[in-house]
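Write out the 3D structure for:
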Amino acid sequence: MTLLTLLALVFICVGGLVTLLFWLPKVVNRPRLKEFLGNRYPLVLLFYFTNGPFLLLIGLYLLWFQCR
């Protein structure tokens, strides 16, 4: 297993976990978070997109790149 493959698997796991945790209703209470943060709530969405689906897509791309 190469370093790039290992990195891809880590990205897939972390991105999938963050995505799963963000969309489970009992783990992250988004309405309460929006009420608490107010106009800083878009920072939470930025954090989610950069650490959730974006990492997942990068990991899948790296894995696909290794298999070619």
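Helices lie at 3-23, 30-37, 41-51, 53-67.
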